[in-house]
Amino acid sequence: MKILKLNLSFMWFDITGSPDKMFELRRNSKWIVSRLFDKSGNPRLYDYVEIKRGYGHDAPKKIFIFDSISTIAFPYRYLFLNGCYFDVTPGDFLIKFH
User: Fold this and answer.
1) What are the residues whose beta carbons fall under 8 Å from the beta carbon of 33, sequence distance 6 or more?
2) How many Cβ atoms sit within 10 Å of the Cβ of residue 72?
3) How many whole angstroms separate alpha carbon 80 and alpha carbon 85?
4) CB 53 within 8 A of CB 59
5) The Cα angle at residue 4 between residues 18 and 42, in degrees rounded to 5
6) Residue 71: which pLDDT band, with cuts at 50, 70 and 90?
7) Which domain holds residue 22?
8) Residue 26: which of 4, 45, 48, 42 has the closest Cα?
9) How far is CA 52 from CA 23, 28, 64, 72, in A?
10) Cα–Cα separations (whole angstroms), residue 70 to 3, 28, 59, 60, 87
11) Domains: count for the chain
């Protein structure tokens, strides 16, 4: 069983998993690319996505079934019901789960 583990701050953790946010957005960086793709550039296949609030060993977490990874093609502002927003740029990643 392969699990993609991601950490979030509390404001994003609280809305993740709601009908408004069944995905995670990540900036294109060496770190996230190493988690999402193997050394040949092929997408890694995960069974689950674990979203954890913060970094403590006892921090709350949510586990979802992994769906897919896609690359953002156009700039876009994701606006969520709680008023938070996230501006993506081409090359950023969208990680879908349910």
Assistant:
1) none
2) 17
3) 6
4) yes
5) 120
6) very high
7) 3-97
8) 4
9) 14, 20, 11, 23
10) 17, 12, 28, 27, 16
11) 1
pLDDT digits (tens, 9 = 90+) for 13-43: 999 999 989 999 999 999 999 999 999 999 9
| CATH number for 14 | 2.30.130
Q: Give dist(CA 92, CA 27) in Å, integer.
A: 5
Q: How far is CA 25 from the centre of its chain?
A: 5
Q: Convert 12-33 into a string of H (helix), E (strand) and C (coil).
A: HHHHCCCCCCCEEEECCCHHHH
Nearest Cα residue to 49 out of 72, 87, 80, 16: 16
Tell me if 61 sits within 8 A of 51, measured CB to CB: yes
What is the token pair recorded at 82?
A: 């709680």
Pick from 37, 44, 47: nearest CA to 67: 47
Question: d(Cα 64, Cα 82) in Å, to the nearest integer?
Answer: 21
